[in-house]
Structures are given as structure tokens and as C-alpha cells.
Write a structure and sequence with these properties.
alpha/beta, Aspartate Aminotransferase, domain 2, Aspartate Aminotransferase, domain 1, 2 domains, seven-stranded mixed β-sheet, 10 strands, 39% helix, binds pyridoxal-5'-phosphate
Length: 347
Amino acid sequence: MSTQRRQFASDNYAGCTPEAWAAMDEARHGHAPGYGDDEWTARAADMVRELFETDCSVFFVFNGTAANSLALASCCQSYHSILCHELAHVETDECGAPEFFSNGTKVLLLPGENGKIDPAGIERTVKKRTDLHFPKPRAVSLTQSTEVGTAYTPDEIKAIWAKTKSLGLKLHMDGARFANAVASLGCSPKSITWQAGVDVLCFGGTKQGMAAGEAVVFFNRELAHEFEWRCKQAGQLASKMRFLSAPWVGMLKDGAWLRHAAHANAMAARLEAALAGLPGAKLLFPRQANGVFVELPLPAIEKLRARGWKFYTFIGAGGCRFMCSWDTQPEDVDVLAADVRSALAVN
Ligand SMILES: *Cc1c(COP(=O)(O)O)cnc(C)c1O
């Protein structure tokens, strides 16, 4: 089987980390009860609780769309609404799944600088209509790190919490790249979740380097009521659950999750430094995680594509998005940066 060169299109182009794979390999042997009644799942959930230093309810599902949709559905009734940034994955990249799995809860969009929403925007949207004819706001969804490669600070999340608390809203966090945010902020996982009012976190495993899987972490344990039934109905209850939970044991043991995320962030920092100041290249957002967004002239984009580079130009706010992953090497970054430089050179 031929393998492709390492690309920057998405962190899901990368394969599986040695730590996650070793745990899968260990879990491969012998028999274990199905549907989550196994020792791997118990251990992985315990390790998540240790990581967050609190007694949360933990579930493992196959992907992020389901994690977000089912977590949000457990916050809302069908006549409620969910507030999120206009670039949020739950709005732009989940094909209406949050509405579908909540039986019609409406997603309301907020603008905001650098992919972030703020307390004033939340209040404006909630207070705009309070009558019976408008879907009642019930939850706020934040993405950490954001779709444009920035990260909310603990204080920013706490300020949003103060607002959601006063307005009676639940707080959901789409943490598909939560690991990159923690690595970037250098904070404890608890300081940007339950200590800042997050009720439920979708903790991404796939993009941090597992083959598949996300953890849904309920800090507000009441919201987890009958969550296993939601998962089952949605086709998200894994029969051989140990293969969704074992990689978490591998990644959380000895801090592999954070090491890999810090590496991906460092590779993005290297790329950002190489592109900064290049005539014709305009960096679009402060880089605070593992993605670099840059505006390039169309001919340069075409030249890069002709050289075999794969990248998206429609994700987030437009521009070219270059994502680094756990296995991105400094040489990969340097080759890409050299190609961008030569694509921009006037000839
Ligand atoms: C990748 C991603 C997800 C999860 O997507 P799936 O393809 O459903 O696993 C969720 N949120 C964000 C911000 C993402 O980038």
C-alpha cells in the first residue's frame, strides 16, 4: 500500500499515535464484555476523571458530530435554541445533526472576532426576543480551540459563564481540538472546563491522534441522564466498546495526549514564522493552536495545488488553512513553506 506524503489539509489526515495503537493492540486479545461493561472502558473513564480532577460522567462515541449533537440534545428540548459562533462546526460542518438529534432545536448564530463569541453577543441574541414565538435560548456552544485556530482563555470562558448563568443557559464545549487548546494555554484541563462553568465537553480523540473516537464528558452529571439510550438510538453505542476506550488509556497515560498536541502546535508556530512577512501572504488570525490561516493570491494557490499540496480554502473564514498534526515533521513544514515562497515569487 502506498502512503501519501504528510499533508496539511486536516489533522485527520494523520494516522494513529504509537501510544493509542499500543493500547488498541493490547485490547485486541481475549474476550471482554460488550457495550462498555469492560475494564478498558472503566479505566479510560477513570483516567478522564483524574485528568479533570472531578467526578464527571464519561461516554465514548465514534465521532465528533455525534458527540456534539447528542451532548447538545441532552441540554435542550425541541423548542429551545443553541447559540454558537457563525463559523462553529456544529453549524457549518455537521449537516444539521444537532437539530436532527434534538428533534428540531434551532441553532442561532453569533458573529465574533477571531472565531470567538462574547458575553455581549450572547445577551443581545437572548434579549432580542423573549416572546413565545421565538425558540427559547437554552445553550451556548463554544469551540475550543476554535475553527480559526484561536483559543479562549480561562477568563474569557468565565465571562461567558457569568452571562450564561444569569440567563439560565447551559454551556457546551466542542473540544475536537481541546488538547491543542490546553497545550497552547498551558493551563489545567479543569480551568477551562468545569471551573469555568462548562456543563458538557466533547473531548476530541480523533484529531489528537487516535484512529477514532471522542469522549463526551458531563461535568453537570444531571445532563447525562439516560445518555446511553441517546447513544444507542443514534447508532453510537459501540458493541466492542473497548476499541473506542483503549486508545484513551494509551493517550492519557504519561501525558501522551498533551505532548502530541504541543508538538502539533509547535509545528504550526514554525509554519507561521516561515510565512510571516512573506510579500503576498497575509496571516489571518493569531495562531494559538495547530492551524495556520493565510490569504494567498489565487495563482499561488493553484501552484501549490499543482505541486500536490492538499488544503482547504472554505473552512472557517476562508483563506488557506494549514493544519499540523501529531506526526508533522519540521522538514514537512520547511518544504511547504519553501513551496509557498516560490509560488509567491514573481516570475
Ligand atoms: C473535526 C471537528 C469535529 C468532529 O468532526 P467529525 O468529523 O464528526 O468527527 C467537531 N468540531 C470541530 C471544530 C472539528 O474540527
